[in-house]
């Protein structure tokens, strides 16, 4: 897998076996779990094979993480686990019990203000169909948290775990550079597509 900070955790065969050897022990059949998502406890009933993406999208209103490849390749389902970007389609829900999960809903708008990464994506028209966009925003936030003053080359490689079928890469990279500047206090540039 290309890119930095993106991890996957596939467990081959779970779909067939309908039981899982997890960090919590062997789990079979439906089980109730409590996840910590965006700082809040979330009670869910899942099967051992239920991915975090399925749990979020099918049982909650947190649908920002998108399903595209569903096999740990495109990054559309990116979430943060303890601040690290991971593919929610490639994680079992039972395996993130006790770990802080952050979805795009957890930081995109706070106190009525959009996160600088979100604003920069809008300013730079960094989306077409928009289906990859939440994953890119999550990955960009994590990338900038770890590298607040990146070069354009670092942005390109840093977001290499996310794919855009519409080819908005130029806009995305410009947005991340703008977000980096704004997170350090720079004013919003004038004259962007939505200025
Ligand atoms: S949907 Fe998860 S990586 Fe593509
Ligand atoms: S904007 Fe369409 S897939 Fe990226």
Structure summarized in a few sentences:
The chain has 195 residues and is an alpha+beta fold. The chain has helices spanning 14-17, 52-59, 116-123, 133-146, 152-158, 169-183; strands at 19-22, 25-28, 31-37, 40-46, 78-81, 84-87, 100-102, 109-110, 113-114.
Q: Can you lay out the helices and strands and say which pair or pack?
A:
Layout: H1 14-17, E1 19-22, E2 25-28, E3 31-37, E4 40-46, H2 52-59, E5 78-81, E6 84-87, E7 100-102, E8 109-110, E9 113-114, H3 116-123, H4 133-146, H5 152-158, H6 169-183
Parallel strand pairs: 3-7
Antiparallel strand pairs: 1-2, 3-4, 5-6, 5-7, 8-9
Helix pairs in contact: 3-6
Give structural notes.
The structure is a single chain. This protein has helices spanning 14-17, 52-59, 116-123, 133-146, 152-158, 169-183, and strands spanning 19-22, 25-28, 31-37, 40-46, 78-81, 84-87, 100-102, 109-110, 113-114. The chain has 195 residues and is of the alpha+beta class. It folds into 2 domains: 31-103, Ubiquitin-like (UB roll), CATH 3.10.20.30; 109-188, [2Fe-2S]-binding domain (DNA polymerase, domain 1, Orthogonal Bundle), CATH 1.10.150.120. The strands form 3 sheets. The protein has a 5-stranded mixed β-sheet with strand order 4-3-7-5-6, with helices on both faces. A two-stranded antiparallel sheet has the order 1-2. Strands 8-9 form a two-stranded antiparallel sheet. It is elongated. The protein binds FE2/S2 (inorganic) cluster (FES) (2 copies). One FE2/S2 (inorganic) cluster (FES) binds next to loops.
């Amino acid at each position: 897998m290309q890119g930095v900070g993106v991890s996957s955790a596939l467990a081959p065969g779970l779909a067939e076996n309908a039981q899982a050897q997890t960090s919590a022990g062997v789990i079979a059949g439906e089980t109730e779990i409590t996840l910590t998502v965006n700082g809040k406890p979330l009670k869910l009933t899942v099967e051992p094979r239920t991915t975090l993406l399925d749990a979020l999208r099918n049982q909650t209103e947190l649908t920002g993480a998108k399903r595209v490849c569903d096999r740990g390749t495109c990054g559309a389902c990116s979430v943060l686990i303890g601040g690290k970007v991971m593919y929610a389609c490639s994680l079992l829900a039972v395996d993130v019990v006790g770990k802080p999960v952050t979805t795009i809903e957890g930081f995109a708008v706070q106190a009525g203000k959009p996160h600088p990464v979100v604003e920069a994506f809008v300013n730079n028209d960094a989306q077409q169909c928009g289906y990859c966009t939440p994953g890119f925003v999550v990955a960009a936030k994590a990338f900038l948290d770890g590298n607040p003053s990146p070069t354009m080359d670092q942005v390109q490689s840093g977001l290499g775990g996310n794919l855009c079928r519409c080819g908005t890469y130029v806009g995305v990279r410009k947005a991340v550079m703008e977000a980096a500047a704004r997170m350090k206090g720079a004013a919003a540039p004038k004259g962007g597509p939505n200025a």
